[in-house]
Amino acid sequence: MLAEHSTPSWAAFVELESLPEFSSLPESEENAPTFAENAAGKALHYSRLSKGLVFADDSGLVVPALGGAPGVHSARYAGAAATDSQRIEKLLKEMRDNVGEERFAHFVCAIALARSGRAMAVVTDRVDGEILESPQGPGGFGYDPVFYFPALKKTFAELSPDEKNQHSHRGKAFRKLLVALSSML
Known about the structure:
By secondary structure, the protein is α+β, with helices and mostly antiparallel strands. It has helices spanning 35-47, 84-94, 161-167, 169-184; strands spanning 53-62, 104-115, 118-131, 147-149, 154-155. β4 (147-149) and β5 (154-155) form a beta hairpin.
């Protein structure tokens, strides 16, 4: 039996690739109220259009003091065509009066696995942190420059790729997906 976050030894041999002709496939709508439902919807949709296993994720930033915003709307928080810096600017403006625990936040990632329109697994994970008052760090994307990770005393934009893979919501969720996949083999 594998521990919850231990990566199966065969996982190093897993090869991921984009769906063939992905840009020409009809898009999946992301209008569900939860990350898990959005991930499952995408995985089910694309698995009907492709052979083999298909996985899709949905992820974003949750700030409880903002009623869970940006949440499932993280990528569209400041409008559909907004840049990362515009989304960060909107977030910081809405949080300008928040202090202490009101700045707590977490990233969430849900990954769904499907085959031929049938859901096989849905896994989720999260990472806790807080929102800084201004961006720090040259790396990352999205909200990474304002998401402070206390365990390493850095923003996600200051983490090395290895640190981010080890601690991020996506890295943790993907390791859970590999464990779930190993139980299907």
